[in-house]
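Entry for S-adenosyl-L-homocysteine complex. Fields follow.
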Amino acid sequence: MDKVQMALKQVKSDIKLKENLTFLLSVPSREEFKPVFEEADKICRKYYGNKVYIRGIIEFSNYCIKNCKYCGIRRENKKLKRYRLTPQEIIDAVLYMKKGGIMTTVLQSGEDPGYDKTLLQIIPKIKNEGVAVTISIGERQEKVYRQFKKAGADRFLMRIETTDPVLFSALHPDDNLNFRKKCLKNIKKMGFETGTGIMVGLPGQSMESIADDLLYFRRLKPAMIGIGPFLAHEDTPLKDFKNTDIFPTLKVVSLLRILLPKINIPATTAMGTIDKHGRQEALKVGANVIMPNFTPSDYRKMYKLYDDKICITENYGLCIGCTEAIAKAANKEVKKGVLGVSKAW
Ligand code: SAH
Ligand code: SF4
């Protein structure tokens, strides 16, 4: 048995996890990594068949009080025109989505507590349409999260970004890793179906630290984990750092599928940006969700987290067709309706 196959076998049996994960994450070629990709695809098809689940994302505000070093909508980017969608614009986007058979939405923004009151009023209206609501709004105190739960939000999405304490502090001048972990724990405890994730290829990120991220996910047991490659943005302090290619991100996706077999893993927009086939590649190695963009066209270019972000000129009708084509390219098909609210673990 070669070294990759031996490490894969040991990972599946929980033996020397960190060491084996670090080894697998460091495998240099796709050819050598193939057994892991194949195993991840097998597991994904066992639980999800050939189905790809859809969540329509609406980027409702690009105001942000934080200054994360990698992010194009950080507060110090003065070049950016800021916007907030009106409640009606959000509802219209949801209704459009519903017409296309997409019954679950992700409402995402910069960290914009100034919009909380309005959002709390919009959520029950969306729920009245029978559409499941995920919010991705960043860090708040526990009592605020409770208000969102009470308003009817079903799911919460907040990436930990990295669990490496040194890297986390270097990238997040306003944040504390322990507080972010605590937020995620609270969110889960409150009964939100919880999503988290990391970026891959961050400047200074080691394979060992990604292995630690994977072990953190094993402990947290979230329902969804979103992985995206880091992509430089020209108006941020990390503008000169090189983007990696899609391979390291695909490795993380497939290892996640093996470690947490029933979890939801999206093929993310950042994957489609770093590589035009990135999302379909991810669907072939363990991913089972796509999140097409339903932000009204005029605002999309203002929610540019990184350079060359895809899907910012299209209108939403196109995104449904495009999503179907990506699924087909991976030999899968889109499943409409609410993504299983059942326990993913
Ligand atoms: N403000 C919220 C959600 C919006 S940001 C929050 O921070 O949780 C959504 C995600 O975009 C972040 O979690 C981050 O992982 C990703 N992101 C931001 N800048 C990026 C970049 N330059 N490259 C790749 N992904 C990026
Ligand atoms: Fe704001 Fe989120 Fe970007 Fe950080 S990652 S600057 S919190 S939008």
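NOTE: The chain is about 45% helix and 15% strand.
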